[in-house]
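Per your request, structure below.
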C-alpha cells in the first residue's frame, strides 16, 4: 500500500535538471537517479547511476533518448546500494540494454537473490513515510549474471575521473561517487537534503540537511563516520538520492552542522537499530 502511494506520488511529479554539462539528475520526487557522461552523440560513454522505482523506467528511457539520441545505450548501470527505490527499474533496463550492473561487493547478495534487507523500522520517526515504510519492498531482487562487484582500486567502470567511496552505515555496502576535478559528489543515501521520513517534506522538496533515511539505516556509528568522510572530501556540489542538489558554501555549512550535531539531527531517538548499539 505504502509503496503504491510512493509510486503514484513519484509518477505525478517527475522532473529533471542538468547540474553540470555531463550530469542530468532525474527527480522522481521520492528519489533521484543520474545520467552521467558525454552528450556529444556517438562520442562519449555514459552510465546510469541508480534506477528509481519500478515505474521510473519510462521516464529514464525518454530522458536517455532526448539526451543521447534514439536507441542510445549506456555502458553500465552503477548502483549506490540495493534498496527498492534505487533498484526499481534495474532488471528491466539492464535486460533491455544488456549491460552490467556494478555495485559494492557487500551489496551483491541483495541483488542476486541471496540476502534480504531487514524490514524498515516505523518507530524511528512520527513522519508518514516512516510510518508506512514497513510496506516498502525489502526482499532481494535477482539481476543474475549482470551483477558485478566494483573494482577494489576505487575506480568506477565507464566513469573516468570518478572514484567510488565506501560509505557504509545506511547499508553495509553503500557507496558514494566522487569526482575530484570539480568536487562533485553523488551521495546516494549517505545523507539527504530533505527530511525523507516526512511526507510533506518529500512532496514539497523542503530543503533540510538530514542523515540517511532513518527507517532503513541499520548502523548509526557507521553512518556518522561516512558523513564525516564525505565532509572531509570538501565537495562543491552534492547530488543526494533524497532531496535537491546543493552547492557551494551552503554544502560546507550544512555538512559541518550535520557532522557536529549528528546525534540530534540524524540519529533517531529510538528504534530497532538504535538500541542495539
Ligand atoms: Zn537506501
Ligand atoms: Zn533511498
Amino acid at each position: 500500500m505504502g509503496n503504491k502511494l510512493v509510486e503514484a506520488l513519484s509518477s505525478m511529479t517527475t522532473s529533471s535538471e542538468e547540474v553540470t554539462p555531463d550530469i542530468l539528475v532525474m527527480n522522481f520526487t521520492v528519489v533521484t537517479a543520474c545520467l552521467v557522461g558525454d552528450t556529444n552523440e556517438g562520442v562519449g560513454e555514459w552510465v546510469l547511476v541508480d534506477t528509481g522505482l519500478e515505474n521510473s523506467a519510462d521516464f529514464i528511457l525518454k530522458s536517455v533518448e532526448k539526451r543521447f539520441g534514439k536507441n542510445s545505450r549506456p555502458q553500465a548501470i552503477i548502483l549506490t546500494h540495493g534498496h527498492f527505490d534505487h533498484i526499481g527499474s534495474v532488471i528491466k533496463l539492464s535486460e533491455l540494454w544488456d549491460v552490467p550492473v556494478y555495485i559494492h561487493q557487500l551489496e551483491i547478495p541483495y541483488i542476486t537473490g541471496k540476502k534480504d534487507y531487514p524490514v524498515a523500522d516505523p518507530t524511528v520517526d512520527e513522519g508518514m513515510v516512516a510510518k508506512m515504510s514497513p510496506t516498502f519492498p525489502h526482499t532481494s531482487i535477482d539481476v543474475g549474471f549482470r551483477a558485478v562487484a566494483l573494482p577494489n582500486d576505487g575506480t568506477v567502470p565507464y566513469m573516468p575521473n570518478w572514484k567510488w567511496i565506501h560509505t557504509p552505515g545506511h547499508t553495509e555496502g553503500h557507496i558514494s561517487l566522487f569526482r575530484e576535478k570539480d568536487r562533485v559528489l553523488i551521495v546516494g543515501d549517505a545523507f539527504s537534503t530533505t527530511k525523507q521520513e516526512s511526507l510533506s517534506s518529500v512532496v514539497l522538496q523542503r530543503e533540510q540537511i538530514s542523515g540517511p533515511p532513518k527507517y532503513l539505516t541499520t548502523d548509526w556509528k557507521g553512518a556518522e563516520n561516512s558523513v564525516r568522510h564525505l565532509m572531509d572530501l570538501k565537495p562543491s556540489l552534492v547530488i543526494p538520492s533524497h532531496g535537491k542538489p546543493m552547492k557551494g558554501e551552503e554544502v560546507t555549512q550544512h555538512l559541518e552542522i550535520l557532522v557536529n550535531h549528528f546525534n540530534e539531527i540524524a540519529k533517531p531517538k529510538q528504534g530497532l537499530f538504535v538500541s542495539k548499539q
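The first strand starts at residue 15 and ends at 20.

Regards,
D.
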